[in-house]
UniProtKB/TrEMBL annotation:
Belongs to the ATPase F chain family. It holds the Pfam family WRW. It comes from Steatornis caripensis. It comes from the Eukaryota. One of its GO terms (biological process) is proton motive force-driven mitochondrial ATP synthesis. The gene is Atp5j2. GO terms for molecular function: proton-transporting ATP synthase activity, rotational mechanism. It is found in: Mitochondrion membrane. The keyword Translocase does not apply. This is ATPK synthase. GO terms for cellular component: mitochondrial membrane; proton-transporting ATP synthase complex.
Amino acid sequence: GPLSERRLMDVRLGELPTWLATCDFSPQGLLGGVQKAWSGYYNKYINVKRGGPAGISMLLAGYCLLSYGWNYQHISKIAFLGIC
């Protein structure tokens, strides 16, 4: 497509000055850019499909690691004494 409609990551290094010249740096243009960036971030990281086995297994693995971290001193003392 036209250079002005490309995203920054799709612009080649040699085309960067020309691409920057086509950008709208007015307050309204900057606000639109911020809104577009927030919308992309929201859709990629916040508004994702919930549930499924992968999400549940990641939640369970995180809980196990967190629980181990909380109880590490207690577990290491028992293992050191040879009780376990």
